[in-house]
Amino acid sequence: MLIGELSRRTGVSRRLLRYYEDQGLLQAARGQNGYRSYGEDAVAVVGRIRFLLDAGLTTEVIQAVLPCVDQDTFDTGIDWCGELRDLLAGELAALDERLNCLQERRTSLACLLGQS
């Protein structure tokens, strides 16, 4: 399928699809005319990319995670290949730290407003 059809089927803009390809997250073949051509599995791959982005992962982390998230395991979990669990645990710890920092800032601002 061409990029326009993939965009329509996934709700993801063509620009983002090209970005995913540039980041090594999505594979496309090139026809003789230079147009990108995606396999039927691209719809599911884009869905997994969007899910992982919504979970707060960067495209760099997703590049490491995506090979471990295949069609058979996506609905039931992740195949914990390599050091994936440690990578995601590190991402979770960083997110927890950012949340703690935001809570501290909120508390400070509330105090300034007399809303302690």
From TrEMBL:
It comes from the Bacteria. Keywords: DNA-binding, Repressor, Transcription, Transcription regulation. Residues 1-68 form the HTH merR-type domain. It holds the Pfam family MerR_1. Gene3D superfamilies: 1.10.1660.10. The keyword Signal does not apply. InterPro entries: DNA-bd_dom_put_sf, MerR-type_HTH_dom, MerR_fam. The keyword Transcription applies. This is MerR family transcriptional regulator.
